[in-house]
Amino acid sequence: MPVKRSDNASSVEWLQEALRLPTAHDMVQHVLEDFDVIATRQFAALVRRRPHLTHFADNVRAAVVASTLGLASLDYAKRRYCDGEEELERASLPVHAYVEAYQFTRSYLERLTTSLQTKGKPEATVGVFGASIVLERSLLSFFCAHLMYQMGYRYEGHAISRVILEQIAWAFEAHEARDIETIQSIRTTAAVSKLKRFAPEAGALYGFLSKKTHIDYSSHSEFLRVEDGKNAVVYGHDVMPEYGSVILRLGDLFSLVWEASQFPYLTTPEAVEARHGTLAPKLDRAYLVKMHDHMNNIEEAVRQARETTGQTDSTVETDARKGGARSSP
């Protein structure tokens, strides 16, 4: 991605940034945020999914096929064996729509966490500072949950999402603390209850994530199947509307708590406002509109994919043919 020069950046600063090479860790994370798998039984490659990388992905696909079949010509492999990707692309529309929802959330949260104005403001209390640290760290948890969702690992993704919500709740209670002793006494369950009073939607989300994380007997029917007279354990669940809803709602809760905890250092709050002498969520916050747009986009993508593949269930499971289930006697 080209580096844009800001108006207040010197020529030297701009050149240094433009020439800065990303670390291997950064590149791996960028790939895992949105990737296509190009594979045969012998070879596989993960390629970052970007419009400007389409030609590169086509070449990688041809190289994988040529290596598998022992072909000397990549052009021949591309012409002969690499057509017919359009139907697969349509089947992947729900994943792509979900990834776009995650990327929207991630970008929004990153913008929030870099918008504080501390110059000329009083020093943050230990509670406000602690809340900011925990919330900033939770951005990595968002990525981890997203990776699990993108892979179809429903329960693992929900477990991480539950941790994210608990971090958000902890930060909300901690921001009012004035000493370390108070911070040390915070209990997660009590913090979630306090967050629910500020943002009632946190309660339903926490209940849902807790149920999925515990995987009690009532959930067993979600990952057990009978195929050819044998039991099969389903590892992957392609329920992108569910995943998108969780990530987007967590993003909303993050923004509410970030602004409530860092309110003295904001110039233009987007999510909260002063109401009747206290801070409260804005009912018309712009994030909610975008959130519902992304949720509708995912649902529409599921509909289109169902029409393409002939599937009739909106919660399409990754089945044994895709390596998603393990048969047992």
Structure description:
This protein has 329 residues and is mostly helical. It folds into 2 domains: 73 residues, no CATH class; 207 residues, no CATH class. 59% of the residues lie in helices and 11% in strands. It is built from 13 helices and 9 strands. The strands form 4 sheets. The chain has a 3-stranded antiparallel beta sheet with strand order 3-4-9, with no helix packed on it. Strands 1-2 form a two-stranded antiparallel ribbon. A hairpin with a 4-residue loop joins strand 1 and strand 2. Helix 6 packs antiparallel against helix 7 and helix 7 runs antiparallel to helix 12. It starts with 10 loop residues before the first helix and ends with a strand. 29% of the residues are buried.
SSE inventory with pairings:
Layout: H1 11-19, H2 24-33, E1 35-39, E2 44-48, H3 54-69, H4 74-81, H5 85-91, H6 93-113, H7 126-151, H8 154-174, H9 180-184, H10 188-198, H11 201-214, E3 224-227, E4 230-234, E5 236-238, H12 240-261, E6 272-275, E7 278-281, H13 286-309, E8 316-318, E9 325-328
Antiparallel strand pairs: 1-2, 3-4, 4-9, 5-8, 6-7
